[in-house]
Amino acid sequence: MIDVTYQVDHAEAIVAQLAQQLDYRIENHLATYENESLKTSIVALQPHRSLSCMVSEFKLVEHARVRRAKNSESNLIVLDFHVSKKADLSISSLEGPKNLIFGAFFASTNIGSYADFTDTEVHKEVAFIFDKQWVAETFRNHQAVNRFIESHQEFFIYQSIHLELATEIYQLHQYAMENGRHLVDEPYVFGQCLKALSMFFSSFSEEAIHLEYTANAQDIEKLMACRDYIHQHFAKPIKLEELARMSSMSESKFRKQFKAVFGKSPYDYIKHQKLWFAKELLEKGETASQAAYAIGYINLSHFTRSFKDLFGLTPSDHKKFHKEQRNIDGL
């Protein structure tokens, strides 16, 4: 298994840390590494002294674990988007992977975490690293976000990203990979970064009613354990009172804490988890009817509507898109 660790800093410093462990080389303006187990490319961009962007693409042959070490002295924040495939994300103090499928996570640097990558297809990731004070000055209109950052010393929030934002992130990823560090138009990159951050903060602000509720590291461990339980048992009915009891919280507190950390109510998260599993089945060749049945949908039209609401495509269109994407990645 490949196992690397870095402490959060701006993008170029992170690449330097990884280079010491994996012996990266510079090729066509990319930091690249390749052996029989891993092929990866990273572009580190810094369009502003308080904002950097790390764009990466990698393909695995075996399991890899990437650890973010806790950094209590840092004034930085991480917003990490995983725009293709999936990974399992865990808080560092927990044992074993917790099967957290990436959308985006927004976190302070004083909570360590690690990601397990087991999917052997191409992974694409874009991470923004920025200073707290810069956010306050640059995004004054996003008052809910700034109040949240100011009032919480440690936080870890995961949420899915809507199709429009995912498209912006994917385009930024593609541009960086095609042009490399020294060929990009930095004002353009800065503008794209600001646009993506603003879109994320806008969706985050819509949840303002929940921002007063956050979880400390101890509560996050309990919530992650509940989430692990959901991943293992989502095919059967799961009651809210059962999850609240597992987390040693009242049902009211559990609902608020769960949504504060994961961006969805427990009900919506369970529904989305079912649909993510159906998406994997479709990508493995199952029919829409087979995938719907596997996650408990009796009505195929209801399944198709729910799938499109989450992923922006019908199950059949997603199968077609996935097949085309695999052909492109294989070129």
Number of DSSP E strands = 12
Question: What's the CATH topology label of the largest domain?
Answer: Jelly Rolls
Count of runs of 4 or more consecutive helical residues: 12
User: Which regions are unreliable across 5 or more consecutive residues at pLDDT < 50?
Assistant: 94-100, 208-213
Strand content: 15-25%
Widest sheet: strand order?
A: 2-3-4-5-11-7-9-12
CATH architecture of the largest domain: Sandwich
Percent helix range: 40-55%
Please trace the helix and strand order, writing H or E for each element. Answer: EHEEEEEEEEEEHHEHHHHHHHHH
User: Which class of secondary structure composition applies to the elements?
Assistant: alpha+beta
Quick one: overall form? globular
Main sheet summary? 8 strands, antiparallel
Would you give an account of this structure?
The protein has 331 residues and is an alpha+beta fold. The protein folds into 3 domains: 2-210, Jelly Rolls (Sandwich), CATH 2.60.120; 215-264; 274-331, Homeodomain-like (Arc Repressor Mutant, subunit A). It is 47% helix and 24% strand. It is built from 12 helices and 12 strands. The chain has an 8-stranded antiparallel sheet, sandwiched between helices. Helix 9 runs antiparallel to helix 10. It is globular and about 55 Å long.
